[in-house]
Structures are given as structure tokens and as C-alpha cells.
Amino acid sequence: xxxxxxxxxxxxxxxxxxxxxxxxxxxxxxxxxxxxxxxxxxxxxxxxxxxxxxxxxxxxxxxxxxxxxxxxxxxxxxxxxxxxxxxxxxxxxxxxxxxxxxxxxxxxxxxxxxxxxxxxxxxxxxxxxxxxxxxxxxxxxxxxxxxxxxxxxxxxxxxxxxxxxxxxxxxxxxxx
Length: 176
Description:
This protein is of the alpha+beta class. The chain has helices spanning 3-7, 24-37, 43-46, 75-85, 156-167, and strands at residues 55-57, 62-67, 88-95, 99-105, 113-120, 126-130, 137-141, 144-148. It has five helices and eight strands, in the order αααββαββββββα. It has an eight-stranded mixed beta sheet with strand order 1-2-3-4-5-6-7-8, sandwiched between helices. The termini are far apart.
């Protein structure tokens, strides 16, 4: 990381500029995702994107942002943001054809954990589970981002049902 990247917020420039590739659909999905996790407590804020281009919850110690770009685009900007705020970061990548996937950068780490999908137990919290069968599992609530080694489901059918519950409705609310 160079000094220009670190000093930008101190000079009044936004850390994450408003890129033209952020579509209204992506912003509405991340707003719904924040609402489903309980991170966003202000419904007025959910109606429009923040002028910074990300949502940071100091109490939870997590930053959530979104893009419609594929990997590895937007990693460098998010790394600078996470380092500047010293928080965990969740990057939602939304593709209208493929749906939403998530990348996680834990505070103090330089290694991205990539390609997670939303999972939800009926009436429960939002989890980020790897698309592949192995890897860490993350619970994302208003208390923050917690990593677990064990899956929140006990078998493949519960995994599938939870993923479908989380993505079946565009609002990520998990209801039927």
C-alpha cells in the first residue's frame, strides 16, 4: 500500500470513490442484506447508499460494501478501507445472473477468504458459508462477524435449504 492511499481520507477525499459500475440493483441488495443481518438499524439510511460507498458499524466492528465487479477487482480499495478503519470487511459481489457471493477480509489480515454464499436457518441469523464444502463459516449479526470451524447445518439437505432460504427472495429476509 502506498502513502497516497493511506492519506486520501485525511485530505477529504472518499476512500472508496463512487464507481459507475455500482448498479441500483447491487445497492438495493446490499441494503437488504444489511437489514437481514441486523447491522443497519436506520431504515432511512437503507433507502439510499451512503456517500462513502460502504456501511461501517463501529459497535460490531465490521464494514460491508458491495460491487458488481468480478474478482479480484475492488480488493485493493477494500484492503485500504479495512486497514484504515481497523475492522473486519465483508464485500458483497452481485451478479444479476449468478446472484450474490461474498468475500471476507478479517481485521489485521492480508488474506482474502473468497466465494461465500448467504445461508440462513429458518428464523435465524445470516451466515456466510463457503460455496465449497470446506472452510470457515461466518455468522454476521448486529454484534459483528464471528468465525466458526463447524458448519451451522448438519447435512447437505440443510445446507441446500438454508442457501435457498437466503437467496430465494431478493431481500435476503429468509422468509417464505
